């Protein structure tokens, strides 16, 4: 099948390139408009009780929105001075009514929590009109008009924080591309030895990113898509496209030295490397598809974006790249820089090395001479690195994900440090009664409920903050950490408080939202794991004809993931390296990030697994010798996997510089996982375990062997290869 596809790409190469250019033009003009279609946030469960509580309260009582917080400060005046009051009220009164629905100030409410302890600062709470996008646009419209004569003015609140996060995501992407692309270009030229060959993976990467942007904009027409998906699209699209390009171009150059024509070389490249790219792409996409199980917009968006980037990178590597290789033919080595590199590094020309005598083969044989020692040692090391994850604490997203010095973050920190606690507690119950609140029966029922809530151990008070018709909002005060374990435990106890006959209560607020999020993630995570493992097992079986290799791959991925998760806790929860990485430790890990990281890392680990196992299986089919096949497979892919990992590290490293903490967390986790996977796992653990298992690596029950013979993803006649070094490994 893949050989036939290669021949078709050769014969239709000009049409394929023309169609690809047309697609790129469309993606540049329409797909890049995705940035105006994306939303912030999306970490909550839209079907949870806390979300329903907010919806009922907004419908019945009006939205209680601290959308924008305007902080005013004076060094010479206090809030009791008429000049201070006049400056603030005149500024707020001039704001357009169609943008600002409500403005709450100290002078209108006399609420003590709106005044700082030194009485030189106060803040106004603005509720803006419209949906999320309209509120953000409204803030942009009124931002300049919030100035007050003689006062220092700072703007914060939920809308401002989301806006700052969105703007930083866009600037981070531009900065990461400016840093990574020149470095990638130089490394690709060094790895390939020619400018022509090095340009091909970058071209595929550009198509993958633009195509994924186009797909995301399409998704945004029918559902909410988080802006954070753009980061994952760029990382995965560029990284995997370079991986696939490296694998395909290296194999094509290899086949050009063997085959009699460009068409035959391309056909054989597609039958081997093309098949591997297809299996890898589908495997990675399956891993990311597991994110679609979750209802959170953030995770679903990452699934949509990641799958789009992977599948488009795979399709470009199987269509556009072969067409370009067909057009280049022997000129794939044009603009060679090898003579210059030899002069600079004083290296003699590389001599061909047999598969049994190359550096990677020697490493494999050394490992396979001590398989038990290396297996136990490496597995023990990875398990030890995983131990910090046993004490992980999960939390939510707050202003600390922004860099220090960001205005909206400084406003939040000032309110916590200099102002009395807000009367609006971290837990709120929206109560619907059988009778109107104003009626004697309704009032008595509401008061009885409030008293019962206030009597819950750990609650510091309960107050009715809004009431209309038969609905009331009860704010529950709690002096401790609003998203800590104790606050979340209180949510369950308050939900158990009896509701007056004929009524209902929905408990929401900050603590309830996090508790509902953790419940949602915990209940769906096993289903995600079952889906990803089961589908990956089936695909790997169809690719390699073994039931042992897929199980071994899953176990090794779990070990790699454990080491990454342990590092996340040690770094981001405990705060180690916070100065070097420039982030504020919070004492917890944002709850959705480990799931996202699991999906990405599991997929990338399978990517390298497929690359290596494809070559080992190919040699095993030729020789029937497990030990020789492992050594030969590592010799022929070790340089490629190492080069691919290095290039991916450059891409991810640039994104690890993000100013948003959880984007930085994703980057750091991927860096650690790729280093562990491409070195400790692929070079040490894989050869050692395959030597221990021997021929059992390739075992499958009789019925499954027949199934593989009929439906396996393989080519019928693997070709023997000359004993020489792979291009790109010198």
Question: Can you describe this structure?
Answer:
This protein is α+β, with helices and mostly antiparallel strands. It is built from 25 helices and 10 strands. Strands 2-3-1-4 form a 4-stranded antiparallel beta sheet. It has a 4-stranded antiparallel beta sheet with strand order 7-8-6-9, with helices on both faces. The protein has a two-stranded parallel ribbon with strand order 5-10. Strand 7 and strand 8 form a beta hairpin. Helix 1 crosses helix 10, helix 9 packs parallel to helix 11 and helix 19 packs antiparallel against helix 20. The longest helix has about 35 residues. It is elongated and about 90 Å long.
Number of helices: 25
Total strands: the figure is 10
Rg is 30 Å
**How much helicity do the residues have?**
55-70%
Strand content: 5-15%
Low-confidence stretches: 350-354, 716-730
Given the C-alpha coordinates, what overall shape results? Answer: elongated
Distance between the termini: 32 Å
Oligomeric form? single chain
**Which structural class matches the secondary elements?**
alpha+beta
The strand line-up of the biggest sheet is 2-3-1-4
| Largest sheet: number of strands, sense, barrel closure | 4 strands, antiparallel
Indicate the mean pLDDT.
85
């Amino acid at each position: 099948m893949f050989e036939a596809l290669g021949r078709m790409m050769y014969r239709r190469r000009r049409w394929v390139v023309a169609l690809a250019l047309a697609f790129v033009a469309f993606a540049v003009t329409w797909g890049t408009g995705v940035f105006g279609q994306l939303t912030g946030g999306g970490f909550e469960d839209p079907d949870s009780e806390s979300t329903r509580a907010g919806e009922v309260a907004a419908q019945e009582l009006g939205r209680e929105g601290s959308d924008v917080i305007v902080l005013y400060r004076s060094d010479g005046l206090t809030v009791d001075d008429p000049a201070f009051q006049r400056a603030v009220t005149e500024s707020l009164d001039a704001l357009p009514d169609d943008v600002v629905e409500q403005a709450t100030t100290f002078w209108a409410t006399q609420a003590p929590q709106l005044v700082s302890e030194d009485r030189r600062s106060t803040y106004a709470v603005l509720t803006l009109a419209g949906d999320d996008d309209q509120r953000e646009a409204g803030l942009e419209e009124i931002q300049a008009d919030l100035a007050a004569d003689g006062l220092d003015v700072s703007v914060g609140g939920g809308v401002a924080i989301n806006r700052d996060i969105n703007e930083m995501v866009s600037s981070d992407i531009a900065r990461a591309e400016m840093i990574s692309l020149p470095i990638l270009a130089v490394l690709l030229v060094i790895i390939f030895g020619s400018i022509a060959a090095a340009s091909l993976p970058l071209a595929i990467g550009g198509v993958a990113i633009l195509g994924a942007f186009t797909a995301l904009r399409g998704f945004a027409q029918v559902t909410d898509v988080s802006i954070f998906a753009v980061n994952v699209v760029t990382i995965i699209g560029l990284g995997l496209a370079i991986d696939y390009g490296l694998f395909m171009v290296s194999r094509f150059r290899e086949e050009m030295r063997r085959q009699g024509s460009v068409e035959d070389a391309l056909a054989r490249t597609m039958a081997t490397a093309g098949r591997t790219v297809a299996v890898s792409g589908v495997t990675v996409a399956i891993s990311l598809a597991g994110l679609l199980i979750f209802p959170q917009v953030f995770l679903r968006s990452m699934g949509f974006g990641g799958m789009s980037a992977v599948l488009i990178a795979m399709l470009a590597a199987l269509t556009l790249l072969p067409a370009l290789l067909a057009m280049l033919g022997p000129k794939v080595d044009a603009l060679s820089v090898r003579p210059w590199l030899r002069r600079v590094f004083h290296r003699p020309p590389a001599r061909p090395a047999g598969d049994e005598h190359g550096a990677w083969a020697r490493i494999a044989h050394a490992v396979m001479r001590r398989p038990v020692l290396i297996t136990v040692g490496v597995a023990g090391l990875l398990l030890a690195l995983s131990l910090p994850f046993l004490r992980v604490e999960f939390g939510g997203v707050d202003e600390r994900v922004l860099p220090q010095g960001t205005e909206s973050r400084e406003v939040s920190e000032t309110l916590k440090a200099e102002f009395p606690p807000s009367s609006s507690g971290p837990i709120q119950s929206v109560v619907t009664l059988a009778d109107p609140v104003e009626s004697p029966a309704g009032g008595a029922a509401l008061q009885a409920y409030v008293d019962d809530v206030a009597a819950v151990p750990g609650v510091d008070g309960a107050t009715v903050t809004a009431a209309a018709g038969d609905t009331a909002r009860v704010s529950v005060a709690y002096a401790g950490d609003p998203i800590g374990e104790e606050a979340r435990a209180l949510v369950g106890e308050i939900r158990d408080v009896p509701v007056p006959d004929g009524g209902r209560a929905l408990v929401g607020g900050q603590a309830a939202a996090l508790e509902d999020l953790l419940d949602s993630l915990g209940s769906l995570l096993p289903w995600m794991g079952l889906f990803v493992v089961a589908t990956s097992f089936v695909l790997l079986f169809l690719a390699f004809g073994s039931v042992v290799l897929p199980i071994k791959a899953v176990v090794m991925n779990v070990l790699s993931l454990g080491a990454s998760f342990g590092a996340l806790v040690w770094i981001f929860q405990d705060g180690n390296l916070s100065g070097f990485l420039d982030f504020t430790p919070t004492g917890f890990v944002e709850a959705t990030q480990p799931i996202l990281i699991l999906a990405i890392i599991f997929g990338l680990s399978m990517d390298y697994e497929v690359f290596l196992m494809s070559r080992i299986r190919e040699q095993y089919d030729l020789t029937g010798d497990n030990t020789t096949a492992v050594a030969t497979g590592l010799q022929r892919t070790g340089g490629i996997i190492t080069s691919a990992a290095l290039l991916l590290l450059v891409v991810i490293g640039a994104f690890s510089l993000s100013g948003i903490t959880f984007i930085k967390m994703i980057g750091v986790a991927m860096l650690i996982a790729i280093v562990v996977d491409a070195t400790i796992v692929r070079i040490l653990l894989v050869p050692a375990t395959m030597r221990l298992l021997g021929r059992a690596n390739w075992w499958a029950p009789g019925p499954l062997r027949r199934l593989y013979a009929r439906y396996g993803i393989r080519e019928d006649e693997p070709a023997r290869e000359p004993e020489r070094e792979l291009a790109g490994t010198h």
